[in-house]
Amino acid sequence: MSGTSLDGIDLVIADLADAVPRLIAARTVAIPGPLRSDLLTLCQPGADHLDLFGRCDIALAEVMAAGLHELLAEASIEAERIIAIGSHGQTVRHQPSGRHPFTLQIGDPNVLAERTGITVVADFRRRDMAAGGQGAPLVPAFHAALFTAAEDRVIVNIGGMANITILPAGQPGAAGGFDTGPGNVLLDAWAQRELGQPLDAGGQWAGQARPDPTLFEALWADPYFERPAPKSTGREHFHLGWLQARLHRPVAPAVVQATLTELTARSIAHGITETAGAKPKAVLVCGGGRHNHLLMERLAAALPEASLGTTDELGLDGDWVEAVAFAWLAKQRLAMLPGNLPAVTGAAGPRVLGAIYPGRTW
Ligand SMILES: Nc1ncnc2c1ncn2[C@@H]1O[C@H](COP(=O)(O)OP(=O)(O)OP(=O)(O)O)[C@@H](O)[C@H]1O
Ligand SMILES: [Mg+2]
């Protein structure tokens, strides 16, 4: 799994034999600087980059395969023991609307299967889109299978974008969810620009200032936040240029960061209570954003009636939930079971997601 933050490739080895997945080994592999900057180029709509696209598709798969070999060695597990790799790849474009909606993930599964000898399941999103869905978010089906409980819960994944899964008590089939908007992507972009750092660790920098109400309103006016579900979004919508187009007067950099943190927290809370109309008892966060203490504090403040925690409390480390979800989706594919929730993506019905690239067959 390599998410919109492009902060690294998350690799996990998971045992899915029981209802609760067992995490056997995990690591994040760095994306080499030049490849990361090429991937960022591909993420911005613009000139035709077909050559770059083709090269990155292979280069990223090579990095993934090398990382997998290291992870297997570290965990002393033979490749033959792995049933399949579920590879999400890296999204370089997500355009769920328009006459020809499409979504594009790269990291060639052929290379991954060839280098590891393990069967690869990839291309999870496009079948859902072909069936009229958003192709995203896909993790809610996994959240529903794993985290549905006797109380109303909401799972929030704060990655580059933020998405929520609404889990009504005791009814995994009734789960809902959508992308609420930006997660860490704007926070990272502004910290990179102003501090030269990849992220605002712990939200410390933002915590030195208070949000600017006028800037907040300008950001909040984006119609995405009021749009009904199903909806999904990506870097092509929420990026540094989106922020700069709304910064009409000088605002101190730390104040901007505080305002962005507030925007992320409030848009997640708004998605839960207004767009989804949910009143959960418990809200459980996974993804890198839960390490941002200020963001967690602001989210708790925006959801005064819910208890805020993390999926770690439910037995699955929040740094690896997304990656385990794609291992689970691969298992669904091999069993010919659906991977999408039509109520979430808007697809015409449940669909078996992903294509299979056989491993060593000789
Ligand atoms: N200590 C920290 N303080 C603040 N933010 C953090 C910290 N650790 C991680 N993050 C944030 O989490 C991000 C990475 O989170 P994650 O890997 O869940 O996102 P992602 O790869 O974009 O996944 P997704 O597919 O959900 O978009 C980082 O880019 C950073 O913004
Ligand atoms: Mg990540």
Describe the 3D structure:
- The chain has two domains: 9-134 and 321-357, ATPase, nucleotide binding domain (Nucleotidyltransferase, domain 5, 2-Layer Sandwich), CATH 3.30.420.40; 139-314, ATPase, nucleotide binding domain (Nucleotidyltransferase, domain 5).
- With 362 residues, it is α/β, with parallel strands linked by helices.
- The protein has helices spanning 33-43, 50-74, 109-116, 126-130, 139-147, 185-195, 213-220, 240-244, 253-275, 293-302, 321-334, 342-345; strands at residues 9-15, 22-29, 85-87, 90-95, 102-106, 120-122, 153-158, 161-167, 176-182, 282-286, 307-310, 355-357.
- 37% of the residues lie in helices and 18% in strands.
- The strands form four sheets. A five-stranded mixed beta sheet has the order 9-8-7-10-11, with helices on both faces. Strands 3-6-12 form a three-stranded mixed beta sheet, sandwiched between helices. Strands 1-2 form a two-stranded antiparallel sheet.
- α1 (33-43) crosses α2 (50-74) and α2 packs parallel to α3 (109-116).
- Adenosine-5'-triphosphate (ATP) binds next to α6.
- Adenosine-5'-triphosphate is lined by residues 3-5, 7, 157, 159-161, 184, 187-188, 199-203, 287-289, 291-292, 322.
